Amino acid sequence: MDIASLVGIISGLVLIVSAIFIGGSADIFVNVPGLMIVIGGTMAATLLTVQFKDVTNAFKGAYIVFTRDNTNPIEMIDTMIKLSKISHRHGLLKLGDVKTDSAVLKRACNLLSEAASEQVIRNTLQNEIDSLLARHFAVQDVFRKMGTYAPAFGMLGTLIGLIQMLSELDNPDKLGPAMAVALLTTFYGSVMATMMFLPIAGKLKARTVLEVTNLEIIREGSISILTNDHYAHVYEQLSSYLPERERKPINSDKAAPAKGKTK
């Protein structure tokens, strides 16, 4: 579970709901037609803009925001160091027997065990990176568009409410409540955009950066293993992906990966 995402959404909702209850009755913030305009309009505009499969993939992938990715670049570097040691001790062919829960890492090991050329390995793993970027960008784009459309449809709902309100000018007692209802759709659109759609897009972008970094480590580490570089040299090269404060002297006896671990 990603604690930061969970704390963020819960604290945000608690603050908004608390402000509503402190200010008065919560009933005045409920307007079904307004919700229909914002939610329905946002979904309709999104479906008009992107492919249906991208929308379904976006909602399927939204859970990633609340899950914790157990593989960080440090652990992936440790994994590549371990593979380098296996290669030095037993040869490249032994890497074909490595078991890992990372499909890309397993593919890299298979290419190495088959003695594929450096160009083949580089192109294959770069294609994996490009494919991941394309998939993730499509998902992020769905939420970014929804974050744009929700406030717009909120304003549209407000305009509809204002038109209805102006038709009641002969009854001053109804103007205040009618104005409140008209403004609710803007409220709904703003909350959905700032508390849901845009933060989700931002978190997914951060996860993409992490995944791409891990794949680049696999790519460069695999090429170093192919050229039979010493594992200390492999570490020096791959540690450039880490901030200076996270770099450490290599321990020749330790290389314990997590998510992309070998078995």
From TrEMBL:
Signal peptide: none annotated. Residues 101-216 form the MotA/TolQ/ExbB proton channel domain. Keywords: Cell membrane, Flagellar rotation, Membrane, Transmembrane, Transmembrane helix, Transport. It is found in: Cell membrane. The chain crosses the membrane at residues 7-26, 32-50, 146-166, 178-198. It is a multi-pass membrane protein. InterPro entries: Flag_MotA_CS, MotA-like, MotA_ExbB_proton_chnl. GO terms for cellular component: plasma membrane. GO terms for biological process: bacterial-type flagellum-dependent swarming motility; chemotaxis. It comes from the Bacteria. Its main location: membrane. Belongs to the MotA family. PANTHER family: CHEMOTAXIS PROTEIN MOTA (PTHR30433), MOTILITY PROTEIN A (PTHR30433:SF2). This is MotA/TolQ/ExbB proton channel family protein. It comes from Neptunomonas phycophila.
